[in-house]
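Before the break, one more example. Copy the sequence into your notebook; we will annotate it together after we see the structure.
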Amino acid sequence: MSFPTACWRLLWSPPADGATNMAIDVAIVEAVAEGEAPPTLRFYRWDLPCLSLGRRQPIDEVDIARCRMDGVEVVRRPTGGRAILHAGELTYSVVFPETDPRAAGGVLETFRRFAEAFVQALCDLGISGVALAPRLDPAARGDGFVCFEVPTDYELMVEGRKIMGSAQWRHRGVVLQHGSLPLEGDPGAIAVYLKNGPDPERLRRRAITLREAAGRPVTFEEAAAAIVAAFRRLLAIEAQPGALTPEERRRIPEWRERLSILR
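Here is what the structure looks like once it is written out:
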């Protein structure tokens, strides 16, 4: 499917705490819904490790005492999905109206379109064997608490191991999709922050970082540039650097409080 060329705002956010990062995504959603901001592609990172929970995940699964001891923040995402430990990663978000043809066909079709662009980006970074996870019956995914333990429909895999996790939320006629691309680190590290966490070695067998997949370090900037280029080629998105509007900045503190669990 081809798309008409669209000009989106490109945001390069400085490292921030987890609650602020989540609040910015929601503030952009509300601004786009109000017609105060254009469709947006945002890249961001985390100034301290942060455990984020999906919209409906129970907090009582988290070892709050261990998180507090290690200085790990805990936040609630506006999207669904499973828990992620954010550290040493590139995080992206896209926010755009549901009337955009890139959102046509519903959640899974939107996931697939953007996933195909991410596949192209990883291939451009020199990674071989990148593929989309097949659609599965929900019962076949199990009830694991950790995002990178099990791939969901159309998430990215490298030689059978998950390399990228994404989640989507549709609110007030606007799509928010954001996701995590681990650049380096230990995929099993999250287990210690969960009361009934999975076996860390099993997580390491099921997930892979960009550094391991590429066989070399890949910087945040290099990975983001590859995604921008793939969006331009496959999705006809011309991303132009911009900044948050005053209205978006005004909304951030309220959402920061609502999404924070432990700071």
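The mean pLDDT is 95. The longest helix spans residues 107-124. Try to locate both features in your own notes.
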